[in-house]
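ok new one. same drill as before - structure tokens go in, u give me an amino acid for every spot. 200 of them this time. try not to just spam alanines like last time pls lmao
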């Protein structure tokens, strides 16, 4: 009789234990499946935004040339601070240059004061306002293409207070898809944006 009572009490606990074990196992399976799906989605997005997956070599070459021109335009705009006599003109230059970059918080080399330190884009623009510099960019050429950016190398000559310094720089120029509004229509276009600048 006692054995029957023990069995009577143990069977529900055994059933509950099995149920909990099964629930934990199911949760683990769902978690693994969710992680796998996320990885597949990330891989799909990476492929969708990959330069080589979306363009022919001829189109990639055209974008590479545009990336080189974008860098030349950036330094041409920096040189205009010497002629910007009003705050309004300086603000217009600020806005135009910030539009060229992926972010105004991009870290770049201090080529104006030549402090051998990394500064933000906003700091660089401020240095240009405070210093009358002559900036010349030479030998711009693409050195590599990754899945989302061009690596561009060039030589920069900066004359500040009659002292000229030469920098061999490397800069990333990002090419990525973005959705833009044209009237009532949305369309995917590809944007070129300047990125970080490093000394080679």
């Amino acid at each position: 009789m006692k054995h029957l009572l023990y069995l009577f009490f143990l069977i529900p606990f055994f059933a509950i234990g099995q149920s909990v074990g099964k629930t934990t196992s199911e949760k683990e399976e769902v978690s693994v499946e969710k992680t796998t799906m996320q990885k597949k989605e990330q891989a799909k997005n990476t492929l969708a935004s990959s330069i080589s997956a979306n363009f022919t070599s001829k189109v990639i070459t055209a974008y590479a040339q545009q990336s080189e021109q974008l860098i030349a335009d950036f330094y041409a705009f920096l040189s205009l601070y010497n002629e910007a006599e009003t705050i309004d003109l300086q603000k217009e230059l600020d806005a135009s240059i910030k539009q060229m970059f992926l972010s105004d918080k991009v870290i770049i080399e201090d080529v104006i004061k030549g402090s051998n330190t990394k500064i933000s884009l906003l700091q660089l623009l401020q240095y240009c306002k405070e210093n009358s510099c002559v900036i010349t960019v030479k030998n711009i050429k693409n050195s590599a293409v990754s899945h989302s950016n061009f690596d561009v190398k060039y030589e920069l000559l900066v004359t500040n207070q009659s002292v000229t310094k030469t920098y061999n720089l490397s800069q990333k120029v990002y090419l990525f898809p973005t959705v833009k509004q044209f009237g009532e229509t949305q369309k995917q276009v590809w944007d070129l944006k300047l990125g970080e600048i490093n000394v080679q």
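The domain at 52-199 is CATH 3.10.450.50 (Nuclear Transport Factor 2; Chain: A,). and btw The CA atoms of residues 169 and 177 lie 26 Å apart.
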